[in-house]
Design brief:
It is a single chain. The chain folds into two domains: 2-124 and 272-302, Medium-chain alcohol dehydrogenases, catalytic domain (Quinone Oxidoreductase, Chain A, domain 1, Alpha-Beta Complex); 127-248, NAD(P)-binding Rossmann-like Domain (Rossmann fold, 3-Layer(aba) Sandwich). Strands 3, 5, 6, 7, 8, 15 and 16 form a seven-stranded mixed sheet that branches. It has a six-stranded parallel sheet with strand order 11-10-9-12-13-14, covered by helices on one side. It has helices at residues 42-46, 118-122, 125-138, 154-164, 179-185, 217-220, 255-267, 282-290, and strands at residues 2-6, 14-17, 28-37, 58-59, 63-71, 83-87, 101-105, 109-111, 145-149, 169-174, 189-192, 206-211, 224-232, 245-248, 274-278, 298-302. Helix 8 links the parallel strand 15 (274-278) and strand 16. With 304 residues, the chain is of the alpha/beta class. Helix 3 crosses helix 4 (154-164).
Length: 304
Amino acid sequence: MKACGVSTAEKEVVLLELPEPSSPKPGQILVEVEAAGVGPWDELEIDASWDVGLRPPAALGVEGAGKVLAVGAGVTGFAVGDRVLAHEAPLPGGSGFWAERVLINADHAAACPPGLDAVQAAALPVNGLTALQALEKLDLSRGQRLLITNGGGGTGALAIQLAAVNGIEVTTTASATATERLTGLGATEVVDYHDPNWSTKVRGGFDAALIIAAGTADAALPLVRDGGQLCSLTSDAPPEERGITSWDLYLEPNGAQLVQLAEQAAAGTLKLAPEPLPLSEGPAAFTQVVAGRAGGKKIVLIPA
């Protein structure tokens, strides 16, 4: 089958021809991939900073959407022909979503609701689950204030929307060109991260900070009130001080949470910005994303 990933001999991202996945084992489903998300985390799969169980030669990608081709024993809730989306890690078949077919655990998948096409669905799992899991752990209440660094990216934009719909006041850093887009998603204030003194331009006393831009945790911490919280998605949570709870969050697959997110996206209450590209452009798309040149768009690969 056609795929995009890494060969045994080298870590360069290339187009591949891979053998078909094995038949699904108990609890697993085989999915015909219709669209697969690309994110900066995919670089971590290559150098084993994030061990997702790749067994090269293998396709990259830990999220996507498609149709169920086969179900393993004991699987309930899914049948052949169902449309699904999923984030999967580790990958039970040793190969990811940047391929024509992928093997995943059924309990990490969610049904695609009507009105959510494959491209939109594939743009949702990693960014959406990361934002939701962070906000659920922060557990802020209506009227509280949240600082997000890098609200312009996929995770940040979804975190803004999920927080704002619950009445949380969001200030975010982003490029100046993203201001209109992010205020439209619910941000109260957008601060230009290109300004080296951005942290002096906002009113402190935030109830929490969500760190999405690497290297911003130390600047954000003084802006959090005594007894507040700081959640880092970049593995750089600073030492706790002034009663502030500070921690790193690591994404976990969760089918039930993905159902919730998919329903919100289908209803239009979560807005996505996918940019579909053919799988044949996978190597170039990977380079573009890891270099931070996606321009706020979520790149989605189409195998067909």
